Model the fold of this input.
Amino acid sequence: ETGVTQTPRHLVMGMTNKKSLKCEQHLGHNAMYWYKQSAKKPLELMFVYSLEERVENNSVPSRFSPECPNSSHLFLHLHTLQPEDSALYLCASSQDETYGNIQYFGAGTRLSVL
Amino acid sequence: AQSVTQPDIHITVSEGASLELRCNYSYGATPYLFWYVQSPGQGLQLLLKYFSGDTLVQGIKGFEAEFKRSQSSFNLRKPSVHWSDAAEYFCAVGAFYGGSQGNLIFGKGTKLSVKP
Done:
């Protein structure tokens, strides 16, 4: 039980589909993150939200659209993805986004784009 | 720019043997350093962290790590490996991206296999 829950755990989608990934944290944290984990590459930070406001966007393509309706929930909306977007998408949360905060991770959503 | 290097992609050790996973970082100031472990199909779990003070830090599951400023290293160690330790291990450094805000820069990971 990590306190950070991601759904679905696995997702297969075509390049023309629209889908959403969901993350929920039960830790009372104020910051949430999306990471992409591809084979043989370091974890890539995609988005950071603090108190529901986006504070960091690491030049992610517009086919990825995040949404943070409250400090406990984070979504990643996907549309017209490419095969190279197939990866494990990890959500994390921390007390806030200040330097040195420990991040707690969910189990991830394994995404396959056909 | 901040960076983390884990020079070993894959390590195999025998159960009961000692383990050392290497991590080198590049950062201008005193870093915040972390080790995370990822079991197959799971997210990342924090093993231990270094913020300041004693350079030898203890973590969960019998792991420890030593911060050596002169070598820019933060190697992870365990005296006796168990089969359940087979997983991928990630070293990370906390890095500023603006004001007091910061984030984690991860290495590429080291996959640990354990032989019976």
